[in-house]
Amino acid sequence: MKSRNEILFERAREHIPAGVNSPVRAFRAVGGTPPFLERASGAYLWDADGKRYIDYVGSWGPMVLGHAHPQVVEAVQAAASKALSFGAPTEAEIELAEAICRLLPSIEMVRLVSSGTEATMTAIRLARGHTGRSLIVKFEGCYHGHADSLLVKAGSGALTFGNPSSAGVPPETAAHTLVLDFNNIEQIEKIFAARGADIAGVIVEPVAGNMNLVLPKPGFLESLQKNCSRHGAVLIFDEVMTGFRVALGGAQARYGIRPDLTTLGKVIGGGLPVGAFGGRREIMEKIAPLGPVYQAGTLSGNPVAVAAGLATLKLVQEKDFQSKIEKTTQLLVDGLVAEAQKAKVVFSAQSVGSMFGLYFRASPPASFAEVMQCDKDRFNKFFHQMLMRGVYLAPSAYEAGFVSAAHGAAEIDATLAAAREAFRSL
Ligand SMILES: *Cc1c(COP(=O)(O)O)cnc(C)c1O
């Protein structure tokens, strides 16, 4: 007999490509039927068959408080009962902007949008408009949303012009994007020496979370800052994932770097669609209607979404919030490494803040090439073994994991008990 998840998956595929509204949800990488989710609370999810899971995806990052936090739900309900959308300014938007500028001091002015993709797309346009240059530097394995100029990865040589990594991106667009290796300082020095006067900006995930989890090597982020400032290029930290996760002030606080522009998303919407880009006043004043760089949005600063974001940001600032969630995440990672060792499985793991990476490889990777050396088939088996035991990991070996403040000792213990059996079965 078919499960309700299977019935829904079949029905979904009739009118939705692959049955999903964002590709990774389709489970193509790991195979099988994705659970169709019905509700969530704290650290737990329930699917259409009534099965319960401990959640380590957290809607891909936003749910840092855990699901359906009562204070966030209450704020959303209160806002919704007043208005769903105005398309006109509100006081709550000022409060959110003030909170962002206070928590990330490199941001002097900020504009709210509705997704991370919108934020990065506009930050790139702003870097180009501000400098009058076209070239953008990005790093292989870093994801910055799905705007044309950012859907580019390296071809064969790292310093060659980018090739589109999606059909439908004109080669002429991709040609303005240079792709380098994450953590390779030598390449940065070389490209700035050769093309410094043409580079509008560098965009980077300061902690890479879209090729599993890769930490910046000492000196990597510093070299970006040094070269950008020397050559008049705009340094963009894409903190859509790392913001309020890696530290309260994001990766820029943790690593002590002051980028020119920052993009945010995920946590700042608390589960509703909010993104933001902001940074140096001089650059932000180039945005319409103050300046010549155009950007707009019908639902930007939506009152219900802003209410969710404000309620979330209020809670993440509470005393010990960051240190507690960081400790829980470390506990999870240490426990998983210990279980893998007992089962003699080649495995490593690490965490930063409330983000973690799992690698079927002897040590954590430092580059895209090293991420590719992880044993993907083993991950896929491990993933299904964990899912079966009620632990919901990201359905791909190339995603970071997320812990929420609702995860406690009970959830970690249950996860490690599942992992013990899962590792033994490999
Ligand atoms: C998720 C993500 C984005 C895109 O955000 P969306 O809201 O999915 O458009 C951009 N950059 C990074 C680093 C992300 O993790």
Keywords:
Aspartate Aminotransferase, domain 2; 4-stranded mixed beta sheet; 7-stranded mixed beta sheet; binds pyridoxal-5'-phosphate; 2 domains; Aspartate Aminotransferase, domain 1
How large is the share of residues in beta strands? 15-25%
Derived from helix and strand composition plus strand pairing, the structural class reads alpha/beta
- Give the termini distance in whole angstroms: 28 Å
Could you say what the CATH architecture of the largest domain is?
A: 3-Layer(aba) Sandwich
Q: Regarding CATH, which class of the largest domain?
A: Alpha Beta
Counting DSSP E segments of at least 2 residues, the number of strands comes to 16
Radius of gyration: 21 Å
CATH topology of the largest domain: Aspartate Aminotransferase, domain 2
Low-confidence stretches: 154-160
Topology as a string of helices (H) and strands (E): HEEEHHEHEEEHEHEHEHEEHHHEEHHEEH
- Mean pLDDT over the residues: 95
Number of domains: 2
Task: Choose one word for the global shape.
Answer: globular
Name the CATH homologous superfamily of the largest domain. Type I PLP-dependent aspartate aminotransferase-like (Major domain)
Number of helices: 14
Structure description:
The protein is α/β, with parallel strands linked by helices. It has 2 domains: 172 residues, Aspartate Aminotransferase, domain 1, CATH 3.90.1150.10; 247 residues, Type I PLP-dependent aspartate aminotransferase-like (Major domain) (Aspartate Aminotransferase, domain 2, 3-Layer(aba) Sandwich). It has 14 helices and 16 strands. The strands form 4 sheets. The chain has a 7-stranded mixed sheet with strand order 4-12-11-10-9-5-8, sandwiched between helices. A hairpin with a 2-residue loop joins strand 13 and strand 14. The two termini are 28 Å apart. About 2% of the residues have low confidence. The site of pyridoxal-5'-phosphate has 15 residues, from helix 4. Pyridoxal-5'-phosphate binds next to helix 4.
